[in-house]
Amino acid sequence: MSSSSAAPSAKPPMRDALVAAAFQLFLERGYEQTTVDDIVALAGVGRRSFFRYFPSKEDVVFPDHERCLADMTAFLAASDKEHEPVRRVCDAARLVLRMYAENPTFSVQRYRLTKQVPGLRAYELSVVWRYERALAEYLRGRFAGRPDGNLRADVIAAAVVAAHNNALRSWLRSDGEGDAGATVDHALAYVQSAFGRPGAPPPAERRREYPERAEQPEVSWQPEGSGHPEDVVVLVSRRGAPLWRMVQEIESTLGRDRRD
């Protein structure tokens, strides 16, 4: 087949063409020096077409966040009581990572641009706040009726966003090299570990439910085998005891054993 008979390449959708034109100009001229008129001229469309897709010049820098926020909200709305709440919001945060990882080159360019323009940093903070509110609203529903349920929801939502963004920015600073998913998974694991079993009541509530255990330690251990503690250590813990308490009890008991 001759080249003259080949089908012409399809033009990119108008929305994508506007984003591509905007970033080409941002990189060539700078963000502040680029106007909406410049963008539409390069894209070959009118101003009305631009504002059909983007309310402002700032919005063209973050073209996928509205879709991602809608996906996150739908994902959380589809949850049921069988889903572990903290794990669910961590999975919701991974939707944001997926958006960035779909186009690493664009994501790195946007990261560099945002660092240079104070107005874009402020805009980005407002976007992040909306993600955090979506996570918090879901958790507030799951923790409704519990003491400090709203506080717990807000703290966990903030922690998820902080962990996700720390890992995401680390990946972006590396120019999108490496496994972004593994980096974010590692960060979110801290959130899941720090807050323990999400469905477990807080310590004060546990004491009301089990008053006879109120003065007992949550974790205990005992050695087995030849009588030497270093042979085997058996850890006995009530369901829901936080990991930090287990480690604390082990270290404390081993310390007493060494002194004895």
Question: What's this model, at a glance?
Answer:
The chain has a two-stranded antiparallel sheet. It has 260 residues and is mostly helical.
Keywords:
260 residues, mainly alpha, Arc Repressor Mutant, subunit A, Tetracycline Repressor, domain 2, 3 domains, two-stranded antiparallel sheet, 5% strand, elongated
Q: Please name the fourth-level CATH homologous superfamily of the largest domain.
A: Tetracycline Repressor, domain 2
User: How much is the radius of gyration in Å?
Assistant: 26 Å
Which CATH class of the largest domain? Mainly Alpha
Q: Profile the largest sheet.
A: 2 strands, antiparallel
Strand content: under 5%
Helical coverage, percent range = 55-70%
Quantity of strands, as a count: 2
The order of strands across the largest sheet is 1-2
What's the CATH topology label of the largest domain?
Tetracycline Repressor, domain 2
Give a structural overview.
The protein is mainly alpha-helical. It has three domains: 14-59, Arc Repressor Mutant, subunit A (Orthogonal Bundle), CATH 1.10.10; 62-196, Tetracycline Repressor, domain 2, CATH 1.10.357.10; 217-259, no CATH class. Helix content is 65%, strand content 5%. It has twelve helices and two strands; from the N terminus they run H-H-H-H-H-H-H-H-H-H-H-E-E-H. Helix 6 (85-101) runs parallel beside helix 9. Mean pLDDT is 79; it is low at 1-11 and 198-233.
